[in-house]
């Protein structure tokens, strides 16, 4: 008659270590960021690891529309820098890398054609979107720029991940862009900066917005969608909804 052997907590963990001991470590150390890591004091690289099944289920099962799933995802899969401190170009790159090493570089999803409402199954190779355009080696944060109409110098900085909620739509950008300007003509008073921006020529405001967002650097999250039914064509962004973090 067989005996039931009681498994203690220690022996259970030992058995789990043995079970997964030969599993290959798919984690990667990323140094080659779009920002070059220049904006993170003491930067030595970011270790990135694949999602676990448990991580995926928590993401897919989230019912909180206010929760920043991207930041939660990165908190579980990267180390070496605080997720809240990431600049957007690095955050997007790391998000793509997490998806790539977790599920492979092929990303399949459906898109409804804006012209004919046909649901089109689309497939992208993420490695095609991971070509980095890095910032210049001497780029600083904050950095000095010249306002084209006022002909004075201003200092601007990159928004960090924790601040992205402040600039999620055009109205928010107009209201909050002053937060990313550290000085105008050597004046560092936030109230002065806010009032000055409201009185600026549109060319100066666009200069500030462009320098703060720095969309010229990082990775290209765009692809060309072509509908096989009506031949409609449009440049679209890679959809980063919850389906991005699932093989299904």
Count of strand segments: 10
Strand order of the largest sheet: 1-2-3
What is the overall shape?
globular
Whole-number total of structural domains: 2
Q: Write down the oligomeric state.
A: single chain
Question: What order do the SSEs take from the amino end to the carboxyl end, as H and E?
Answer: HEEHHEHEEEEHEHHEE
Radius of gyration: 23 Å
pLDDT < 50 stretches: none
User: For the report, how would you describe the main beta sheet?
Assistant: 3 strands, antiparallel
Amino-to-carboxy terminus distance: 45 Å
Instruction: Provide a count of the helices.
Output: 7
* SS class: alpha+beta
Q: Into which percent range does the helicity of residues fall?
A: 25-40%
Question: What is the residue-mean pLDDT, rounded to a whole number?
Answer: 85
How much strand content do the residues show? 15-25%
Would you give an account of this structure?
- By secondary structure, the chain is of the alpha+beta class.
- It has two domains: 25-133 and 219-245, no CATH class; 143-213, no CATH class.
- Helix content is 29%, strand content 18%.
- It has helices spanning 9-19, 53-60, 69-77, 88-103, 170-176, 190-199, 202-213; strands spanning 28-30, 46-48, 78-79, 106-112, 119-125, 143-146, 153-156, 181-184, 222-226, 233-237.
- The strands form four sheets. It has a three-stranded antiparallel sheet. It has a three-stranded antiparallel sheet with strand order 6-7-8. Strands 4-5 form a two-stranded antiparallel ribbon.
- A hairpin with a 6-residue loop joins strand 9 and strand 10.
- The protein is globular, with a radius of gyration of 23 Å.
- The protein starts with 8 loop residues before the first helix and ends in an 11-residue tail after the last strand.
- 20% of the residues are buried.
């Amino acid at each position: 008659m067989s005996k039931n052997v009681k498994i203690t907590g220690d022996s259970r963990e030992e058995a789990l270590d043995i079970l997964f001991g030969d599993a290959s470590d798919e984690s990667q150390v990323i140094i080659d960021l779009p920002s070059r890591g220049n904006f993170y004091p003491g930067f030595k690289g970011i270790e990135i690891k694949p999602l676990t099944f448990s991580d995926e289920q928590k993401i897919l099962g989230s019912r909180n529309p206010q929760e920043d799933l991207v930041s939660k995802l990165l908190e579980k899969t990267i180390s070496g820098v605080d997720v809240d401190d990431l600049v957007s170009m690095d955050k997007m790159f790391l998000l793509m890398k997490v998806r790539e090493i977790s599920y492979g570089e092929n990303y399949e999803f459906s898109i409804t054609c804006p012209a004919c409402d046909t649901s089109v199954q689309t497939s992208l190779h993420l490695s095609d979107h991971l070509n980095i355009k890095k910032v210049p080696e001497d780029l600083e944060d904050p950095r000095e720029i010249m306002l084209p109409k006022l002909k004075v110098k201003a200092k601007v900085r990159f928004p960090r991940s924790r601040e992205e909620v402040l600039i999620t739509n055009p109205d928010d950008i107009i209201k909050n862009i002053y937060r990313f300007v550290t000085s105008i003509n050597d004046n560092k008073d936030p109230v002065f900066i806010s009032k000055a921006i409201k009185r600026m020529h549109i060319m100066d405001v666009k200069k500030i917005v462009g320098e703060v967002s720095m969309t010229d650097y990082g990775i290209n999250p765009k692809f060309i969608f072509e509908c096989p039914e009506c031949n409609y064509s449009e440049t679209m962004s890679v959809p980063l909804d919850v389906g991005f973090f699932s093989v299904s």
